[in-house]
Amino acid sequence: MHFFKWDLLLIFWLCKLAPLVRSYTVHIGEDAGERTVVAGVERGARCTLDQVLAPKFTERFLETDAAAGTVFVSDSIKCASLRSNPFTVYTVSDCTDSGYRHLLTSQFEVHVHGRNCSNTRKRKPQWDMEVLSLFSSHSQHRTECRQAGSALFSVGGLLPGAPIHCKVSNSRDFYFSEGDLFVSETLCWRQDILLELDLLCDVLTGVGFSTKANLVSIHWRVGQGPFRQGHLGKLLEKAAQSDSGIVSSRRRRSINSSPQFQPPMYQVAVAENKPAGTPVVVLKAVDADEGEAGRLEYFIEALFDSRSNNLFAVDPASGAVATVEVLDRETKDTHVFRVTAVDHGTPRRTAMATLTITVSDTNDHDPVFEQQDYKESIRENLEIGYEVLTVRATDGDAPVNGNILYRIINGNGTNDVFEIDSRSGVIRTKGMVDREEVEAYMLLVEANDQGRDPGPRSATATVHIVVEDDNDNAPQFSEKRYVVQVPEDMTPNTEILQVTATDQDRGSNAVVHFSIMSGNTRGQFYIDAQTGKMDLVSHLDYEANKEYTLRIRAQDGGRPPLSNISGLVTVQVLDVNDNAPIFVSTPFQATVLENVPLGYSIIHIQAVDADSGDNSRLEYSLTDTTPNFPFSINNSTGWIVVAAELDRESVDFYNFGVEARDHGYPVMSSSASISMTILDVNDNNPEFTQKAYYMRLNEDAAVGTSVVTVSAVDQDINSVVTYQISSGNTRNRFSITSQSGGGLITLALPLDYKLERQYVLTVTASDGTRLDTAKVFVNVTDANTHRPVFQSSHYTVNINEDRPTGTTVVVISATDEDTGENARITYFMDDSIPQFDIDPDTGAVTTQTELDYEDQVSYTLAITARDNGIPQKSDTTYLEILVNDVNDNSPRFLRDHYVGSVMEDVPVFTSVVQVSATDRDSGLNGRVFYTFQGGEDGDGDFIIESTSGIVRTLRRLDRENVPVYSLQAFAVDKGVPALKTPVNIHVTILDVNDNPPVFEKDEFDIMVEENSPIGLVVAHISATDPDEGSNAQIMYQIVEGNIPEVFQLDIFSGELTALIDLDYETRSEYVIVVQATSAPLVSRATVHIKLVDKNDNVPVLKNFQIIFNNYVTDKSSSFPTGVIGRIPAHDPDVSDQLHYSFEVGNELNLVLLNQSTGEIQLSQALDNNRPLEASMRISVSDSTLRVKNSFTEFPLCFHEHALSLHLHFRFTSPDNGSDDDLITPQKNTQSKGAIQKHNK
């Protein structure tokens, strides 16, 4: 390559000021053609290309056209031969404009692209351009001044395009206007002074539609004086030492050092509810620079939640952080900021740290119940310890201020049957609950958070507990026995009594139904099942039945129902004088011997009265008598006796009457006639014509019906035979009268087959003195006089719903007091109910289909019993069939499955989800409780409340161990056997930031090749966080070992970037401590960054001389035969092995060289007195790089008296006479670099 040498000094200082460039990026292909332009000079001003600086390996394919001001491709490019890609080409232009000369350097980053090409990213320069401008002095003085507001020179011609807008920064001495650079105030320059400024310009580049605006940054130095080598050298020396200059040596750091935070992470706490402006922390970074470069400005920015920016502010000058608003821990308890400290140097340097502010808790929240009013219903008679419900309160404060305890405030009195678990809030029964005593409870529950700062807070909730009724009380009659008197003549369908029973239960359990269980054999009474009103439904007959005793059942409507059959009703029939006396025979005929004594009883006049009491007490009297009537009648007994002596011859026949009068009201009476014949005395007994009579009489025969006529014959002349029933006339059912010489037996009172089925009457025939007897057998035959009668008008039976078809439910029977066909009963149902059938003969009611309690709980059948008499008679009763529930239905959940979620840090007993199931059965069969037993409870991490179905946490959860639970609960009824149904519950555990980031190892090594480009990512630091989402976001930072700032760690990606060139020979290892933060949790690891040595240094070898003084005598030989030294070469690359060789000058082998160690020995050919001088060239190679140098050998001879007994070897550099460059086997303390051998 051709170089236009301006001055060696200028090139040297341009190396020091390499960033004084205009930066371009050039992309060419590996197959780029010849004359392809790589770099050039701008033509806006009068500029000439002065120098081109490029890597040596580019000499093969790059050349310079000085006239055209371009650098172009002259030969093919091969990527394999490129030492670096991209590579940098610098051009130095000398521009003249309006009395100014500008030294303008341009940097071209050349990227070569091709199949075998690889590109390495390079760090972007700080400025796009750097310009050194000098103006000529117009005076003889060394100082030149410019007035304020005067233009210095035009800027546009030096830029890569037309400037749209420019702005001066980092200097108040200059400003830009209309394309020129002006001075703000009067400025004076000395020849050794450079004033500096930064210029930011929007520049139009491109042509036509491709025109676009680019931002260009220029660092400008302005001075005065000639463009001569000496003056320019001094200015460049100052520029190289200025803060804004960046030296080219890759081992030199910027003079403007970066600030450093100590510590790199702040963790502080501030109490909530403090007023705005409360101090939090003072951030402090240290910058070693002085002046503006060391003045820091602080900034904070929220990392995870932008709301934090509105709550805190930092004083940019002091770094003091304070609150802006009142903080609320419950809204956000942790705030994480990126803290930045920026200096005011050029360029501006920054340091970063993290600030984690934890808001500490104060007890500023009352506990809050899940519900302000809880409502629950329970059944009475529950077992002690039954869980009624769980109240739950939460407290937004931290655990120390949210440790909630529960208590029942009004737990005395009737409420003492309940207690509450102070920790869990479970309300249980501790006594028996009886609805009949207390129907509802109102508990006032307090939750106290036990807080200390400033004190405990509490809240209350009301729990309303309604007691549901159990059918635990049977109906109770208002009286043990009801007595009612009913006149026998009361009109049917008249109410005679109100039966009352009450039930202490409620609802259907308290609805009472009445029925007559027994005593209503004739069906004369009816009781209304709903009201208990009892009616007379048919006529009463005191004479038939004077009193009825009925047993009443009171049954409630519970399931199952309870009954009381202790109710007794006595119906006393009151007699009414509704029957006149009836003479047993009329007319009466009697005979009496005329010689009977006074008081002789002639005939017993007998009348009967069906009434009772005074109504049936009779009084007899004779009627139609004459004065001195010889007969009288006992008015009580009815016997007619002789009251005066009889004289047949005087009167042989009497005809008179008799009256029977009762004592009732109104008085009723009957009359009969009596024929009395006075007989003469006789001596023959009457004799019956037959001794026994057999008769059949239907029981429904009417009174007065003739039964039979008996006949007796008396042999006496004119004897009159009279007839009487002397015995067997039970209940005076029959009477006999004398008629036509015989005795006619008639029916005096109605017959009753049930009472007497046969009568044996003894009939006496008397002629007044003598008598005879005969037997009359009367067999009573049954008549259909009675209807069938059920024992009760209402029957109730129970049957289990699971009984098979054909099961006999009950046998219903009715009785009929008749006999035979009249008593044969047939049963049938009035309505067709398909579930049941009744046997017509037995009255057995059986099931026809399967019963289901859940479909229908009861059936009412109207059953009729009908006899087979003529006419047919019947009775109807009602059969209530209650279906008993059998546990044939499993509980059923309202959902197929349940889903819930809960934060992993919630306290124990937190509610997660509530399941609910129903059971169609009733009573205990339908009472559901919940359990995890037999299911899955998350290894004991969850419990389920047996009554409410609320699933709660039982232990602390950890999402990182178990993120999702698949639970299985059961709903179980209390039937026997119990039935249960499973349900799956899916619980997702939500993450909280409770795990610090974790490095794979606490200490690890990173191998980095030296000479890696600045800005190269040398490693990825990574940690893992078991949390998820924003809780797993990790920030990385270097907290130790990075002073001075060699590496930069990206806060989010963890990319570790080198900020300077890494040189193994300068430092082979860096140890830093990195920190991973997931606020407020942190972890640290130690990183050993070990550089891998590259062969980037040429072996160092200087020219040297060997001066050999040989002392020769005849007596002895002192010529050295061993190693006299080693070639003074070394290689900064510690891993390189050097190889030594002679190139020219040692053809006679005067010096013996060890090619591996560089050790030197002298040939025996030098052991003489001849002076000799030889120049030799030695090559030293590290297998890649080679260096060549020469040395000269001077053998000197001295007289033996001159050196006495000493032999000297001297190795020295011909340039400065230093002996340090030749490495010798040993050193004399008196002569540095000399080898001294002593001979005696």
TrEMBL record:
Signal peptide: 1-23
Gene3D superfamilies assigned to the protein according to its UniProt record, in alphabetical order: Cadherins
GO BP terms, alphabetized: anatomical structure morphogenesis; homophilic cell adhesion via plasma membrane adhesion molecules
Residues annotated as domain Cadherin: 262-369, 370-477, 478-583, 584-688, 689-790, 791-893, 894-999, 1000-1101
Record carries keyword Transmembrane: yes
Keywords assigned: Calcium, Disulfide bond, EGF-like domain, Glycoprotein, Membrane, Receptor, Repeat, Signal, Transmembrane, Transmembrane helix
Ranges where the record places region Disordered: 1217-1240
Pfam families: Cadherin, Cadherin_CELSR2_9th
Keyword Repeat: yes
Protein name: Cadherin EGF LAG seven-pass G-type receptor 2
Species, as recorded: Collichthys lucidus
